[in-house]
Amino acid sequence: MSKHKIYTMSFSKVYPHYISKAEKKGRTKAEVDEIIRWLTGYNQEELELQLVKETDFETFFAESPQLNPSRNLIKGVICGVRVENIEESTMQEIRYLDKLIDELAKGKSMEKILRK
How far apart are the C-alpha atoms of 4 and 107, rounded to whole Å? Predict the structure, then answer.
């Protein structure tokens, strides 16, 4: 079975869309970066290095320093699928990130987005 094409897509190609989606709703790049750092454990320098290297999504999540253990608290529907029911781990991580960015764009507080 072949991999989903998003696995081989460069994270740096999608990242500007995350920022654009947030900024259209009055949110900031700093908030997007905070969400990504919270989810993956990358620090800002490591995140920026991944962007420069044009790391694909599969590698981006596989090399994450520390996936946040609270990410299993992320619930809801993204792209018509409940994120908590996605069985393939890499796809679930990608959809967790999509869900968090959606919550940011919908005006949720950072405290709620980061499951504090």
Answer: 30
Q: Which two tokens stand for residue 105?
A: 């764009």
Take residue 67 and report the two structure tokens written for it.
């996936």
Residues 98 and 82: their CA atoms lie apart, in Å, by 12
75 and 83 in contact (C-beta within 8 Å)? yes
Instruction: Look at the pTM and tell me if it is higher than 0.90.
Output: yes
Say if residues 34 and 22 touch (Cβ distance below 8 Å).
no
First-to-final CA distance of the chain? 38
Cα separation, 49 vs 74, in Å, equals 26
Q: Which range, of 28-37, 59-68, 75-84, 94-103, averages the lowest pLDDT?
A: 75-84
Rounded distance between C-alpha atoms, residue 19 and residue 72, angstroms: 24
